[in-house]
Each structure stands twice: as structure tokens, then as C-alpha cells.
Design goal:
This protein has 204 residues and is an all-alpha fold. It has one domain (7-15, 38-199). Helix content is 83%, strand content 0%. The longest helix is centred in the last third of the chain and has 42 residues, at 162-203.
Length: 204
């Protein structure tokens, strides 16, 4: 049986993931977290963040339900834990005390918090898991993964060319952007925690 590409499914999944991940909104956070890096390390961090996010979301898309059931972890629990982690990062950005080591070319920043939970957060993971679970055949699975690949490529491009924005903002503008990013990130973190709490309440 030939594999038929479902354009509607592809567009729906890609748009949903793009809105959840929100690469334009992530740019100030990325600039704040990579402020002390040079251009080469910043680009490497962008590449690794997108790769880590793709890997995490893909693993949960395939094995997510089994992993959560085995660990007896609920989606609301993931949301609360991710929100608390983001809140810590947001407070460091707001106070200017972010001291994430960058001697390993941005590996730590690229993995946490950029790769996860900023890019591969509960929203993106659950959305992809649900999209996969709704598909009855291989064609649907491949379409969902094609949408995920496209979105992660767009994320990488947005972060890869954040240097243009950094050049326009200069150092003082980047510092200001990191403070604003900290404020926005704290709001996102609180919303994630609230969603998790409401999820617990609804489940009980």
C-alpha cells in the first residue's frame, strides 16, 4: 500500500507546534542565555538546542505513553516540574546572575533550559504525542514527524540568525532584552505550573 502524504495533517501539526514553541518569542531568551558566548559558540548552541528538542519530542512521540505510565508520571506533573525549572532560570535572568557555564561551547545552555523545557516543553511533547496517537497508519506517523522536522529547522534558523538581532540591539539592548525575557519567562513558568495544578484538580 503506497504511503500518501497528508497535507492537511502536516500543516495542522506544523502550525500547532510552531505556535507552541514560538521561535520569535524565544529569541530574547536565547540572547540572554548566550550573552557571554562568541558567535561560533552561540551558533553551536542554537544547533544543539534544536537537535535536543527534536530528540526529546521524537522519543516522547514514539514511547511517551509507555514512559509516563512506567514511571507513573502524569502530564500535569511534567508541566509543574518544567514550570519550576523555568522559574529558576527566569529569576536568574531578571537579576542578571545567570552563570551557566559556557566553557563547553554552550552544551549546558543548549540542553537545559533551551532544548528542554523551553523548546521541548510539556505543550510540544503532549501535542506531538496526541498527533501520533490519532494516526491509524504509517503515512500519518511520517507526516507528523515531517512536520516536527520542519518546525525544528525553523527554530534552528531563528536561533542561528539571532546574531542579526544581537547586532542591532548591541550590548545594552541585549541586557535589556535578557531582563524582558526573564519577565516573560517567569510568566510562562507560572502559567505552566498553573496548568499543571489545574490538571491535577481535573484528574481528581
Amino acid at each position: 500500500m503506497p504511503v500518501v502524504f497528508n497535507l492537511d495533517l502536516f500543516l495542522t501539526t506544523a502550525v500547532t507546534l510552531f505556535v507552541i514553541v514560538d521561535p520569535p518569542g524565544l529569541l530574547p531568551v536565547f540572547l540572554g542565555l548566550t550573552r557571554s558566548m562568541d558567535v561560533h559558540d552561540r551558533r553551536r548552541a542554537a544547533r544543539r538546542a534544536a537537535a535536543v528538542a527534536f530528540g526529546v519530542i521524537a522519543v516522547f512521540a514514539i514511547f511517551g505513553r509507555q514512559i509516563l505510565d512506567y514511571l507513573q508520571v502524569s502530564v500535569p506533573a511534567m508541566s509543574v516540574s518544567g514550570g519550576l525549572l523555568l522559574l529558576l532560570v527566569a529569576l536568574e535572568l531578571l537579576t542578571g546572575r545567570f552563570e551557566e557555564p559556557t566553557s563547553t561551547a554552550g552544551v549546558n545552555v543548549a540542553i537545559v533550559p533551551l532544548g528542554t523545557p523551553l523548546l521541548a516543553g510539556p505543550g510540544a511533547i503532549v501535542a506531538t504525542m496526541l498527533a501520533v496517537e490519532r494516526q491509524p497508519d504509517l503515512a500519518g506517523y511520517l507526516t507528523v514527524f515531517a512536520a516536527l522536522i520542519v518546525v525544528m529547522l525553523l527554530v534552528w534558523l531563528a536561533l542561528r540568525y539571532s546574531d542579526v538581532l544581537r547586532t542591532l540591539l548591541r550590548e545594552s539592548g541585549t541586557v535589556l532584552a535578557s531582563r524582558i525575557a526573564g519577565l516573560l519567562l517567569s510568566a510562562i513558568a507560572v502559567q505552566m505550573v498553573a496548568d499543571g495544578v489545574f490538571g491535577f484538580i481535573a484528574a481528581n
